[in-house]
Design goal:
CATH class of the largest domain: Alpha Beta
Strand order of the largest sheet: 4-12-11-10-7-5-6
Radius of gyration: 22 Å
CATH superfamily of the largest domain: Type I PLP-dependent aspartate aminotransferase-like (Major domain)
Number of helices: 14
Structural class: alpha/beta
Order of helices and strands: HEEEHHHEHEHEHEEEHEEEHHHEEHEEHH
Oligomer: single chain
C-alpha cells in the first residue's frame, strides 16, 4: 500500500476536525490535489473515481466549464452583498427557476446557508404559521424514526433520538414526537401497521403539533432506506384530517436523485414546506432553499411581528445563487432523466454479485443511489484505504456501503466503480482472504 504520509497530512490530522472525527485519532485522510469530471487526483498522483458526488452534491462532476464560467462572471461583478434591503440578479433568477421547477403552489422562496439551516427555517415557518393564527402552543414536530435532518439544534431534535447520531445532546434538545418509519419497501402499498402509530400520535397530540417532517421516499443518513410513495399519500390524508402541516426534507433527494426531479413527485402531492440543498449548486457553493406555499407565507406575515423571523448574514449570496442557476440550467439541458435511469440500470446489474456474499443483508438501488447493507458495521480504518487502493472514492458508514455517483459518470467509470466495490466488500467480509489486486485503470480512463 502506497504511503500517504506528508507534513501537510500530519498537520491536518493533528489540528483539523473532519466530519464526525477525532483530532489525532489516526483516521485515514486523503489529500486531494485536483478534480475533474468524476475523478479526484490525490497529491501522491493516484486517481479515484468519485462514487459519492461529494455527499450527493456534485451532480455535474468537478471543474465543469459552464459552472466555472458562471462563477467567474459573477465574481467580477461582486461576490457578496447583504440581502437585507438589497437584492440582485442571481437571487431573482434562481428563485424564478426554483419556482418554475417545483409545484405551482410552492412560490415563496427563502435562501439559507446549508441543509441544516433550511430545516431550521422550515421548522420556524411552521411554528410562526400557527402563532400567527393564535395557536402559539403548536410547537411540536412529528418525525420518523431512522430519519436524519441535520446537525444544528432544531434539526437534531427531529432526527432519530435512539438510532441517530445525536443522543449525546438529547437532554438539551427540544423534545419531539417520533413514530416508526414504514416497513414497506419502495413500490409497495403502505399497510395499516405502517400508519397506526402516526394516526395515534396525531389523534393524541395534534393540538400541539406544528408539522410532520420527513424525508420522502429515501431516508438518508438514518439508514439509506427506500419506502413506498403510498405511505406519503396516506400520511398526507392524516395530516389534513388533523390539521397539521407537512414538511418534506429533500436536501438529499432533490434534483433528480431518486429518478424524479423531486421525490415528492412519486406521491403526486405538494408538501406545505419543501427543503432543498446539496445538489442545488452542483456542489460548488454552500446554499439551500426553503420553499413554501403562498397561503403559508401570507398567514405568517398576517400576525405579529408581520415578518418571518430569520435572516442569515450570507443569505442569498450572489456567488452561490449564480452557481445554483448554472447548475439547474445544466440539469435541464443535459437530459438528467436518462442519465439517472442509466445509472440505476448499471448499479442494479453490477452491484448484484454482492447479494451472494455471506454478511450482506441487502442490496438495493433507486435512481442514482446504490446501497449495500452489511450485517455488521464496517471498519473504516481498513475499508477506506482499500477503496482508495482500488481506485475509487466511497465513504461507508455503519453497516452501509453506498454510492450516489455524479450524473455525468460514464458507463466505463460506473463499471469500474462497481467492480471495485464488489472486490472491497468481498475482501472485508471474507476472513484470511488474500487481498485482491486493485482494478487497473487505463490512461484514457484517468483523464475522463
Amino acid at each position: 500500500m502506497k504511503s500517504t504520509s506528508s507534513p501537510e497530512l500530519s498537520f491536518d490530522q493533528n489540528h483539523i476536525w473532519h466530519p464526525y472525527s477525532a483530532i489525532g485519532a489516526g483516521q485515514p485522510v486523503f489529500h486531494v490535489d485536483s478534480a475533474k469530471g468524476c475523478t479526484l487526483t490525490l497529491k501522491d498522483g493516484r486517481t479515484l473515481i468519485d462514487g459519492m458526488a461529494s455527499w450527493w452534491s456534485v451532480i455535474h462532476g468537478y471543474n465543469h466549464p459552464a459552472m466555472n464560467d458562471a462563477l467567474k462572471k459573477q465574481i467580477d461583478k461582486f461576490s457578496h452583498v447583504m440581502f437585507g434591503g438589497l437584492t440582485h440578479d442571481p437571487a431573482i433568477a434562481l428563485a424564478t427557476k426554483l419556482i418554475e421547477l417545483t409545484a405551482p403552489e410552492l412560490d415563496a422562496v427563502f435562501f439559507a446557508d446549508s441543509g441544516s439551516v433550511a430545516v431550521e427555517v422550515a421548522m420556524k415557518m411552521a411554528i410562526q404559521y400557527w402563532a400567527s393564527q393564535g395557536q402559539p402552543t403548536r410547537q411540536k414536530f412529528i418525525s420518523l424514526r431512522n430519519g436524519y435532518h441535520g446537525d444544528t439544534f432544531g434539526a437534531m431534535s427531529v432526527c432519530d433520538p435512539v438510532n441517530g447520531m445525536h443522543s449525546l445532546f438529547s437532554s438539551t434538545l427540544a423534545q419531539q414526537l417520533f413514530v416508526e418509519a414504514p416497513a414497506t419497501h419502495f413500490g409497495e402499498q403502505a399497510s395499516e401497521d405502517d400508519l397506526a402509530e402516526l394516526k395515534a400520535c396525531l389523534e393524541n397530540n395534534h393540538q400541539r403539533v406544528a408539522a410532520i417532517i420527513l424525508e420522502p421516499i429515501v431516508q438518508g443518513a438514518g439508514g439509506m432506506r427506500f419506502y413506498g410513495a403510498d405511505y406519503l399519500v396516506k400520511l398526507k390524508a392524516l395530516a389534513d384530517q388533523y390539521g397539521v402541516l407537512v414538511i418534506f426534507d429533500e436536501i438529499a433527494t432533490g434534483f433528480g436523485r431518486t429518478g424524479k426531479l423531486f421525490a415528492y413527485e412519486h406521491a403526486g402531492f405538494t408538501p406545505d414546506i419543501l427543503c432543498l440543498g446539496k445538489a442545488l449548486t452542483g456542489g460548488y457553493m454552500t446554499l439551500s432553499a426553503t420553499l413554501t406555499q403562498r397561503k403559508i407565507a401570507d398567514v405568517i406575515q398576517s400576525g405579529e411581528p408581520g415578518v418571518f423571523m430569520h435572516g442569515p448574514t450570507f443569505m442569498g449570496n450572489p456567488l452561490a445563487c449564480a452557481a445554483g442557476l448554472a447548475s439547474l440550467t445544466l440539469l435541464e439541458k443535459n437530459d438528467w432523466e436518462s442519465k439517472v435511469s442509466n445509472i440505476e440500470t448499471k448499479l442494479t446489474k453490477h452491484l448484484a454479485p454482492c447479494r451472494e456474499l455471506d454478511g450482506v443483508a441487502d442490496v438495493r438501488v433507486l435512481g442514482a443511489i446504490g446501497v449495500i447493507e452489511l450485517e455488521e458495521p464496517v471498519d473504516m480504518k481498513t475499508i477506506q484505504p482499500l477503496f482508495v487502493e482500488h481506485g475509487v472514492w466511497v465513504r461507508p458508514f455503519g453497516k452501509l456501503v453506498y454510492v450516489m455517483p455524479p450524473y455525468v459518470m460514464t458507463d466505463t467509470e460506473l463499471e469500474s466503480l462497481c467492480a471495485a466495490i464488489v472486490k472491497v466488500v468481498t475482501i472485508s467480509l471474507v476472513k484470511d482472504m488474500p487481498v485482491l489486486p486493485p482494478t487497473k485503470r487505463t490512461s484514457a480512463e484517468k483523464t475522463i
